Known about the structure:
This protein has four helices and no strands. It is mainly alpha-helical. The protein starts with a helix and ends with a helix.
Amino acid sequence: MPLLVFKLILRLFKKCFETLFPPKSRLRDLLKHPLAETYLHLKWTQTKKFFFLNIFLYGLFTLFLTALSVFATYIVRECSDDKVDFPQGEKTTERQRELLSI
């Protein structure tokens, strides 16, 4: 399955590259120049660790945000079994005050 997704992404990337830089365009020739290729290679070797760190941190953030959402939903469902009503004046129980302060 992941290989199929990777092939699909690669095919889409090639199609986008072909659209941006047609086969006979001058821009493609400039990108194929040895000096530009060397510069892009050096730039990539310097920045790839930050690129992968960024992807890792984004994945970690997404994982924690998902866990927070799941646990928050669980807590709300557990607390909603008490059927807390909004207070009418000063007549609230200690449990209602505790739940309303969250």
